[in-house]
Design a protein that fits this description.
This protein is α/β, with parallel strands linked by helices. It has helices at residues 12-18, 44-51, 66-79, 90-101, 116-125, 141-147, 170-179, 192-195, 229-243, 249-258, 262-281, 300-306, 328-340, 371-377, 393-404; strands at residues 83-87, 107-111, 132-136, 152-158, 183-187, 205-209, 223-227, 286-290, 318-323, 346-347, 357-359, 383-387. It folds into 2 domains: 12-259, Aspartate Aminotransferase, domain 2, CATH 3.40.640.10; 262-404, Aspartate Aminotransferase, domain 1 (Alpha-Beta Complex). It contains 15 helices and 12 strands. The strands form 2 sheets. The protein has a 7-stranded mixed β-sheet, with helices on both faces. The protein has a 5-stranded mixed β-sheet with strand order 8-9-12-11-10. It is globular, with a radius of gyration of 22 Å. The protein binds pyridoxal-5'-phosphate.
Length: 407
Amino acid sequence: MLQKPLPDNLQPETLAVRRAIEKSQYGENSEALYLTSSFVQPNAETAARRFAMEEEGYTYTRVGNPTVTSMELRLAALEGTEAAIASSSGMAAILLLGMGLLKTGDHVVCSQSVFGSTIRLFAGEFSKFGISTSFVSQTDVANWAAAMRPNTKLLFAETPTNPLTDICDIQALADLAHNGGALLAVDNCFCSPALQQPRRFGADFIIHSGTKYLDGQGRVMAGAICCSQKQVDELFLPITRTAGMVLAPFNAWVVLKGMETLGIRMQAQSERALALAQWLEAHPRVKRVYYPGLPSHPQHALAMRQQSASGRGMGAAVVSFDVHGADARALRRNAFATIDAVRVCSITTNLGDTKTTISHPASTSHGRLTEDQRNAAGIGQGLIRVAVGLEHLEDLKTDLSLGLDLL
Ligand SMILES: *Cc1c(COP(=O)(O)O)cnc(C)c1O
């Protein structure tokens, strides 16, 4: 062993740069990238035991890979869960969750304002297999309670939501789920464990799109479920090793290194987002701003309580706002004009990047929803989403002013 085992009770900042598998015999300081599809076995007997899962040891990257394991260990340490299992994307993680947990005849209660593809997955794909989903307005626990049935197996929430930053009370939903014999999954993409650890409030599964803040620089796609070791071993690993929605080692390595700077990035990006949200709220061309860090946000107090893993409540880095407009057509025209005027921000739907991104949710990330689904989620044609990166605040304000001042 080249390095003594890590002491217990390390702080998140330390775990973010230290938690991983042991170094190889070469003692590399930066984590090794094991870019290999298979692993040589010492002999046939050992190979047989490893394939039967009777002995630890890597065999084939669809079953496990040391770089992927390092990423899983680091993420679990940050989320405060016993274990994590990585997947090829955030959506693959949600697919894996459903495949592991649900069967024909089961029922799911899901927030109606989760990520667009999440809605499509539950409403479209899972329904093909006889799994029904009720979509509820997310903020009021009474809506969730009313939708529960005897066959409800899973509650699925996202907080804050994309793009309107609705907050749900994780503890209240966990209690509701557990009293009804169900489990709670929380998509923690927007806050990341640097700001919010849903496990502390009773969530059973924490879902990640590693594509966003965990990578943090918009390079790769990745996903994960954080949960107990037993759940990984019994519910999810049998599926990933069979069905293959595993994370590629290279992508795992990028995310592993990305997590080293997660804490300081989330803090810096949240601070800029708060300042930008305050500025937008005072802007005469802006009708309404959605940002949990603003006292005007309907669930500001709850957000500050839940999103305080860093030691103080923070609103995260996504700010959405409505421009003015007389009708849907005018709203869309004004939103497009604001977006098309930018010269610094990237017009793209990704978020969680060091580069600020700007998008029109109604025609992009949420464009595949029906008009009814969009209206239910409150995503109008005048809505613009800004995922704040690390540029200087004044440059971002100038960039958004280019279009806004002309409206
Ligand atoms: C992007 C995103 C996902 C899906 O993740 P992919 O890595 O793109 O598959 C899920 N949930 C939220 C909240 C997201 O923003």
